[in-house]
Amino acid sequence: MQPEQLSILHTSQAPLITVKGTHRQIGQQIGEACRNQVKHSLESARLLLDSTYTDLELTWDGAIIQSRKYIPFAQERYPQYIDELQGIAEGAGVGFDDLAVLNAMEAVTMDALHLTKCTSFAVNQSLTADGSVLVAHNEDWLPEDESDVYLVHVEAEDEPPFLAMTYGGLLPNIGMNAAGIAQCCDSVYPTDSRIGIPRVIVSRAVLGARTPAEAIRHMLIPHRAAGYNHLLAHDSGELYNVEVSARNFAILHGTDGVVVHTNHYLDPRMQTIEYEPDELIDTRVRYFRALRLIRQNSMHTVKTLQAIQRDHVNFPNSICNHADKEDYPLDREKTINALVMDLTEKVIYLAWGNPCANSYYPYYL
After folding, report:
1. Per-residue pLDDT at 7
2. Distance of CA 347 to the CA centre of its chain
3. Which residues contact 274 (CB under 8 A, 6 or more apart)?
4. How would you label 179-192 residue by residue, b for 16+ Cβ within 10 Å and e otherwise?
5. How far apart are CA 359 and CA 349, in angstroms?
6. What does the domain layout of the chain look like in residue ranges?
């Protein structure tokens, strides 16, 4: 089957929402502007739990009960982001408990959503044609959430302005800020998960950081429930993969001007706590493929990174990932957007849907 047969063609660019004020006001403005996306994402999440009850044995009411165990940890450390969630709920006219499930979904389902196809990479001045710092990310997730993608330009009263991608009722966490910090998040699967601060809330905090060290301190905050790999870039050219679990971490520095990450741990110590590593084959194929494509060129541009994001080697489980309608719901995923951040010029180029079928549009910080 050809890639284009599995892709949605978007006739417009993803919406951009501009918000400003306190964290509560920011959330309210997002909720009002994206009411349809928020409500649809909740409907999709409910349907997912319904369709996977045989495996997860989890109802929506049960998910609400589980998510309530996590929220107090977030409230204690990051009350401002709970305020944002409450604001989104108010603005969109939905229940806060429902949004809490959405933002703690990975924890609530005990990582049964083994969505292992995101790809992130970055290059600094030593490998770009014009001396810019470039960061790329393919966001692979449930096909039902593709219609709910949008970008948000946020000016919080106590943080640097930032521009980020998100979808539905999720707090934004993949983007860049005016202090020169950029973050991409890739799911990883540690065995030491626990009740604590949900990963989405931890990674939202990174967008408020002013320095790389402050960003990493957020990633490693005590009482976190689990962890992502956080691909962290700074406009100085510093590049990191920060691999995180609930109780462990590894900081990998991009000493040769490049970092790549997919959905398995790279650090040997972190690999010892990885859940079922023998199943994580496709993520390794994508990792080595992306690394090879990046190393073939020492004069990268936004367009050369976009070309890598369209790659179909190992299709459909390729860097540009395509869904199969016949897949079981827990295994069904696709690239719902691809973005390249130019940290030097402070612009995000985003393709809504599979980048092989859709155009990139610029969004400026």
Report:
1. 76
2. 18
3. 188, 189, 190, 191, 264, 265, 280
4. bbbbbbbbbbbbee
5. 9
6. 3-364
DSSP, residue by residue, 289-312: HHHHHHHT-SSB-HHHHHHHHT--
Q: What is the pLDDT of residue 291?
A: 98
Number of Cβ within a 10 Å radius of residue 196? 22
Residues 6+ away with beta carbon under 8 Å from 327: none
Burial (0-12, 13-18, 19+ Cβ within 10 Å), 93? exposed
Count the helices and strands in the chain (H runs, E runs): 13, 14
Alpha carbon distance 332, 269 (integer Å): 30
Ranges of the chain whose pLDDT falls below 70: 1-6, 111-116, 328-331
Provide CB contacts within 8 A for 130, sequence distance 6+.
301
CATH classification number, 3-364, choose in 3.40.190.10, 3.60.60.10, 1.25.40.10, 3.30.1360.20: 3.60.60.10
Give the position of tokens 């590593």.
Answer: 277
Q: Are 178 and 162 in contact (CB under 8 A)?
A: yes
Structure tokens at 8: 């949605």
CB of 234 closer than 8 Å to CB of 204: no
CA distance linking residue 77 with residue 334, whole number of Å: 33
Question: Which pLDDT value is given to residue 324?
Answer: 77
Whole-structure pTM value: 0.96
Strand positions, DSSP E, 148-202: 149-156, 162-167, 174-177, 181-187
Residue 198: per-residue pLDDT: 97
